[in-house]
Specification:
alpha+beta, Ribosomal Protein S5, domain 2, four-stranded antiparallel beta sheet
């Protein structure tokens, strides 16, 4: 048996500029981090004693003769991509619910891809996992999704991810002082709104006309630079929360589906209770609500949002890793073959 562990992510700034239709003309960048909440994929050889030759277990159970019969589009296309069609049993488990804006769909793609390669006896780099997951989701499955979630899931950590016009992707870890990073983490609160939706559903309401929002997206792009400067010590860290609020207001101009009256009321309640700023994690429409709240105001915010589930979390920097193999040895591939260089390049056309 092979078990992969892949982190979920929280995106702070720049969301919307990571869609190919935008960054191939204008460039894009995001600031995001992975957190210590994970998606697990287990993969094992299926003995020849069953009528089915492939078993996939997620919130449904599919029993098939071949991956061609799978209803789960990402699993089907990922198995096709790596050339494994049958004789497998695959299970999916996650610490957080799917469709909640924390990159679960891409974590599934990255984690499944990682597990299947190891099942075949191959070790793959983070940049290959990220690139191939983007290709599977955008080209093979045909999802209307951006390119940031796959990169975060594969690499892990707090990164500025830059999308160049030529399809290269630059991953830059942000070297924040430990004390400052701990302070940031302690001032962030995550709440589950209970509203499930996919990023593609929300994105479809504005991506096709994304160039009509040119000025807004340029401002969202510029906020990444401002946020990085704040993290690196140029200004009060509470300015990070204020910038989140500024981005919240700007993001509303992209589509009426990014928020709704229930979410707006929740966010307003949180701000009244002491939150400085916040955002919906992911494309919007529901899922997880991230808030920047000074420590002394957090009890009041928890009380004000007592009808929501509070999800404590910490930053993590491992990315997708194989944590178990059937010979009994456990692996903690904390860098997952990450390059020792600070800058890593992906080219979504050449797969290099």
């Amino acid at each position: 048996m092979i078990i992969s562990r892949t982190p979920y992510r929280v995106s702070f700034f720049g969301g919307g500029t990571d869609y190919p239709i935008w960054y191939r003309k204008n460039g894009g960048q995001v600031l995001a981090t992975t957190i210590d909440k994970y998606l697990y994929i287990s993969c094992r050889y299926l003995p020849p004693f069953f009528e089915h030759r492939l078993r996939l277990v997620y919130n449904q159970t599919e029993l098939c003769q071949s991956c061609e019969e799978l209803l789960h589009p990402t699993a089907r296309e990922t198995l096709r991509f790596v050339g494994l069609k049958q004789d497998l049993e695959i299970h999916y488990d996650g610490d957080l619910p799917g469709r909640s804006g924390i990159g679960s769909s891409s974590a599934f793609t990255v984690g499944l891809l990682n597990a299947l390669y190891r099942y075949k006896g191959q070790q793959v780099t983070s940049d290959r996992l990220a690139h191939e997951s983007i290709y599977i989701e955008q080209q093979l499955v045909g999802e209307q999704v951006g390119s940031q979630d796959q990169v975060s899931a594969a690499f892990g950590g707090l990164n500025r991810i830059t999308f160049l016009l030529n399809d290269q992707i630059l991953v830059e870890p942000i070297a924040v002082e430990r004390e400052r990073l701990t302070y940031l983490n302690s001032n962030l609160m995550l709440f589950y709104t209970g509203i499930a939706r996919t990023a593609a559903e929300v994105a479809e309401t504005y991506v096709s006309s994304i160039h009509h929002h040119h000025d807004s997206l340029l401002r969202l792009h510029a906020m990444v630079d401002k946020a990085v400067n704040i993290l690196l010590g140029k200004g009060d860290l509470d300015d990070f929360g204020r910038l989140l609020h500024e981005a919240w207001l700007e993001k509303q101009t992209l589509s009426p589906n990014i928020s709704n009256s229930r979410i707006d009321e929740t966010y307003s309640t949180a701000r009244t209770a002491g939150a400085i700023g916040g955002k919906l994690s992911g494309a919007g429409g529901g899922g997880m609500l991230l808030l920047y709240v000074p420590l002394e105001k957090q009890r009041k915010v928890r009380d004000a949002l007592s009808d929501l589930i509070h999800v404590p979390f910490h930053f993590e920097n491992t990315g997708s890793a194989i944590i178990f193999e059937d010979d009994g040895q456990r692996y903690e591939e904390s860098e997952n073959l990450r390059s020792s260089e600070k800058y890593l390049f992906l080219d979504s056309k050449t797969n290099k």
